[in-house]
């Protein structure tokens, strides 16, 4: 059996190239014109870009052939058991396990010296586990997502009144960081698997919304930690620029870091794969075909994430910090806002989980919501959010003055757009704020903050804002779809999937699909 389809791999690499090339081009233009750097740093950035492209291509292939089928299998089997305790136990365990293994959470933990790393990681893991259980019960009992979001975000902003000001941005950042390249493919596929068991007309809406709820758990969890620990005066992380004189030395820097990320991703993927194999053994699925292809997909995912994380952490992170510092300390610091918006517009396409989301949206909606349209809406939202984040870094405005009205608008929109757009929008918030944001935009903001004399709390919040604006832009897209559909002549037939999106209402008296 051929496990490696060269045509598919070539297609994935080509997609990754088209996603990363614009950001690379913008940065190179800055290095040539406004911020000259050493040849060593330039070469380091170029090597990082190559690793990023190859890694993203392999990851996308692995997510399609392994992570998605694994999640769908677990979701469908535990729902088919029709036992509530099985759903609760498996959901909590999966949420905790996959969050603890999330690489982005490890990065955030190292940037918060006031809280022990393991305390932060386990607390956030428990938060995600609990909210994954809530997300699963929402699907099974057909509870509309917007009501849960309204309740839990009200709790978030109520708790925010008691959290130290300097820790608010970090708390909101944690919601975006936790839903990274490991979490998103598995949890989204879990939702597809659970929804596939239901034969109701509205079951398609339940494919989405898992990531949305799982993003709330970390925010509440980190806020609670902020009340327990003394978190005043967060330290600014130190980003080390590769110190090398020759090309051989530069490659040596990457090779020395490679084992670290190999170990990190082995620890991340190992428990998930072991759980899947044990779950498949218990449910009697070991004898069925496709296991070899899934394991090969796991290998693609592993190699892809190792290359991706090595490239962004070694090649992109130090350069992003250097660029922000140089521009923030220059006479043209006002350029930070439009440049940030430009980089934000293109950088979202380089997030691995964005490709997973857009592909799944296109499949579930039968092309009614094209992946290209969704990507464009995400790009616009992230561009706006990065521009606002740069203004905040320059002015030091409290993040509450931005996120509070932002979430109020997003939650109000949920009452005027089809439910599926609300689910996709709140999922997109967690998906857009991935490793590229954490390892390039956050260091960039840190550099600007250091140059203008701000505190670390002013730099934190970039991830939170990147996670917020897609909620508004995607739902605005849903509002446009809804208005356009209403303006069409009555005699003109509507596409089947669009009718389902616009007219579908949740069933309230369906036969229960689990035993209480």
Please explain how this structure is put together:
The protein has 21 helices and no strands. The chain is mainly α and 516 residues long. Helix 1 packs across helix 2. It is globular, with a radius of gyration of 22 Å. The chain starts with 5 loop residues before the first helix and ends in a 13-residue tail after the last helix. The C terminus is likely disordered.
Question: Share of helix among residues?
Answer: over 70%
Largest sheet: none
Quote the beta fraction.
Answer: under 5%
Q: Please state the structural category.
A: mainly alpha
Oligomeric category: single chain
List the total number of helices.
21
Q: How many runs of DSSP E, i.e. beta strands?
A: 0
The global form is globular
- The helix/strand order is HHHHHHHHHHHHHHHHHHHHH
> What is the radius of gyration computed over CA atoms, rounded to a whole number of angstroms?
22 Å
From the N-terminal CA to the C-terminal CA, the straight-line distance is 44 Å
Poorly predicted parts: 491-516
> Could you report the average pLDDT, rounded to the nearest whole number?
80
